Amino acid sequence: MITAKELKGALAIMPTPAKPGAERLDATDTVDLDETARLAEQLVRDGANGIMALGTMGECATTSQADYETYVDCLLKTVRGRIPTFVGTTALGGHEIARRIKFVKERGATGTLLGIPMWQPANVEMAVKFYGDVAATFPDFPIMVYANPRAFRFDFGVDFWGQVVTKAPTVMSAKFSSKNILKESIAASKGKVNFVPPVGLAYEFAQIAPESQDTCWIPSVGPQVAIALMKSLADGNAAQAKAVAADIAWANEPHHAITGSQEIFASYNIQLEKVLMAASGYCKTGPIRPPYDYMPDDFRQAASEGGERYAKLREKYSKLTN
Q1: Average pLDDT over all residues of the chain
Q2: Which of 68, 77, 97, 227 is the most exposed place for a label (fewest CB within 10 A)?
Q3: Hey, which residues does 145 pair with through a beta bridge?
Q4: Distance CA 235, CA 232 (A)
Q5: Cβ atoms within 10 A of the Cβ of 152, count?
Q6: Residue of 52, 56, 6, 3 lying closest to 289 (CA atoms)
C-alpha cells in the first residue's frame, strides 16, 4: 500500500473525455473511450508520476453510473499499474461510495480520491468518522482526501488533520490548496499525509515547507512543466525552480479573473479546466456534461488563452528534457 513518502513528482489530473452530444440532458454512453486510453497512455509515456481521475474536472458528480464504470475500466486497463492512479469515488451517500471504492479497487486503482458526501455540510466529528469508517471498511486501500472546502462546505482545518490520521490510518495524501494552514496541517498530521498542491502553488508551498513538498498536480495539458518544477525543487536548484514557477504563473494569468474569486471559481471550475485542457491541444475533452455546460464568452476566452500558454510551456520543457 502506497505511503505519503512514496508519492512523489507530478501527478496529472485526467478529464473524462466526452463524445459529441454529451451536453444533452438525455445523453447516454457519453465517454470517449478511445481518447481515454490514448490520453492515459500519453501521460505515462510523457513521464507523469501518477494520475488522478474523477474529481471535479473529471466530472465525477455528473457522470452516470454506467459511464463511470466504463471509464474506470478503460483507464485502469490502460495504465496497468505502471504509475499510481487515484480514482474519485465521492458520491451523495456512504453506501454508493463504498460500492464505488469496491469497484475501483477490484480493477486495480492505487487508491481513492475521496471528498465528503455533499448533500449537507459535515462538522469535524462527522468528517473524521466518515474517513475512519472508510478506512475500517477498506483497510488496505489508500485514501487521498479531496480537501476542497468550497465544494464540500467543510474547511479541512488543522483539527481535522490532527484527528483523521489516528481514526483513518489509510489517509496518506490530500489534494490540498490551503497554504495559510499548510505548516500547521503538516505538523498535526505527524508527516503521515502528503499535501499535494496545484502546480501553480507548488513553488510557494515549497517555500513554506521545503522539507515536505515534493509532489504537485497539473491538469492534462502535458506534465512536462510540472516535472521540471518538481525536479528543480528536488535538486535544490532555487534559480531554476523560480524560473519554472514564473512560467507557470504566466500560463495561469489569463484565467485569474475566474480563479481569483472563490465564489466565481466554484461556479466555473469544471468549465475552466475542460476548456483549458482542450485549448492546450494535449487532449480532446469533448463537451461538458450538464448542468455545468454554461460559460460566459469572456471566461471561455480566458481559459482558452491559458490552455494555449500551457501548450507553449509543454513545447519549451519538452525540448529542455529531450
Answers
A1: 96
A2: 77
A3: 114, 174
A4: 5
A5: 19
A6: 56
- Cα dihedral 212→235→224→299 (10° resolution): 50
Instruction: Note the pLDDT tens digit of each residue in 265-275.
Output: 999 999 999 99
The strand order across the sheet containing 111-114 reads 194-196, 171-175, 143-146, 111-114, 85-88, 50-53, 9-13, 215-219
233 touches 207 (CB < 8 A) = no
Number of Cα atoms under 13 Å in the Cβ half of residue 27: 21
Q: What residue ranges define each of the domains in the chain, with the CATH number in brackets?
A: 4-321 (3.20.20.70)
Reported pTM: 0.97
Give me the percent of the chain exceeding a pLDDT of 70: 99
DSSP letters, 222-264, are: -SHHHHHHHHHHHTT-HHHHHHHHHHHHHHHGGGHHHHT-HHH
Cα distance between residue 34 and residue 40, in whole Å? 10
167 contacts 180 by C-beta, under 8 angstroms:
no
Look up residue 7 and give its three cell numbers: 508519492
CA distance 267 to 288: 14
Residue 14 binned pLDDT confidence (cut-offs 50, 70, 90)? very high
CA distance 122 to 128: 9
Q: Round to whole Å and give the CA distance between 29 and 49.
A: 30
Q: Are 276 and 303 in contact (CB under 8 A)?
A: yes
* Radius of gyration of the CA atoms of the chain, in A: 18
C-alpha cell at 144: 487521498
